[in-house]
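Researcher: Here's the sequence for the chain we discussed earlier.
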Amino acid sequence: MTIHPKGIIPPMITPLDKEENVDKKAIGRVVNHLIKGGVHGLFPLGSTGEWYGLDFNQKREILETVIEENNKRLPVYAGTGAVTTKETIRLNRLATEIGVDALSVITPVFITPNDQELFNHYEAVASHTNLPILLYNNPGRTGINLSVDLVVKLSKIDNIVGIKDSSGDMTQGAEYIRRTDDNFAVLAGRDTLIYGFLSYGGKGAIAATANIAPQIVVKIYEEYQKGNYQEALKAQFQLAPLRMAFNLGSFPVVIKEGLNLLGLEVGTTFKPVEPLTDEARVKLKEVLKNMQLL
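Model: Thanks. This is the structure I predict for it:
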């Protein structure tokens, strides 16, 4: 499958049981819920998927389950970011063996490499795989920002095909788009800015809210592609309260609680992140009701 990343690609949550083991049956439910919602790709092991709490074998188990349940219906993007170049390459090898279609590589966390070190990291990662790679910029979580100059340089590497930008910086996102060619896909990582990215020429979004409300997020993209800009903007504004509700709890518990309220039973998050308080759950329920999801 030749990958040109576009459309709405949810970074899937990872369902867990009470002992914090991966719940494979629930993964199947989530895959089908998303496909039914009209999404354009699946993205296990992203930040929303709590990649930081999963060991190598759990990652294998999740990717195998998603690939099997998806059954070639949609492209699968695997999050393979790690702190070191060596570990990233190892995870890429695993994902490739299992049969994913593309890789998403977040900048290292905890350490703060400079631009040259980041270039070397991504160049090495790209040279060890034939699969397409999406860069992933999330400075709020990693403490590192991929500068426009660096992204332009990285975009010239053959199998680096795009970037997910969760910085929330629309100027930077617009510059990524302006200064790279049309074959390089810039995807919104901040769910409140999907319409903005599309209007600048972005190719879609990797949107955590699409776990809960795939139809609404897909509508932003689909209506925009049809030239129905008012409808697309309306859907973007309809989605906003759900993204704003993320601050009701520690990331990414709100997404899991939302899915539980919808009856998908995906369990809770890795500790130390706690379930929502009763008060916060009531507020989330209200948001979902107002969005006509409940």
